[in-house]
Amino acid sequence: AEEKTVLEANKKVLNVCLGEIDACDHCVIVLLGDRYGFEPEEQVVSDVLAERNALSWNHPVKDISITELEIRYGAWKQTESDPTPKMLIYMRELQGEDIPPEYQVDTESEKKEKMSRLKAYVKTLAQNSNKNIIVRNYRVNLKRDGLKEFSEMMKEDLTEMLKPEWEKLWTMTD
What SS3 class is residue 103? Predict the structure, then answer.
């Protein structure tokens, strides 16, 4: 009974995460750090994808983190007919000393390998001209104001991404 409760809870969490991606009208923004994250059970992933009619899903469902699922699901949902980018992925690189443990790279070798593969996959998304995805790297030093450059980069990307939508609205009001 307790295992069923855990599975249901994990299913609910994954449904919420993928539901947020489904609800995105304009873009999905991913902030990718250095920790791989929680991996729900294979049955949970399969059930949630089936509920979402993801019949053409051809990505792993076993031993995959919610973060990786969100990225793969968001990329999978991109349409090739719309040339406007709909997904922004920012990969963080921490610099400096005394990085708090919650920000540090996973120390478990299996998780480190999975994170390395995920980042490699993300880089291939940027190279795939058929996808409306922008991937950017940014560096931050927690001791200094390293987020200022990142926030400017994100503002520019969002402005560029949403500009066609704004232009449509402006022509509708004229």
Answer: helix
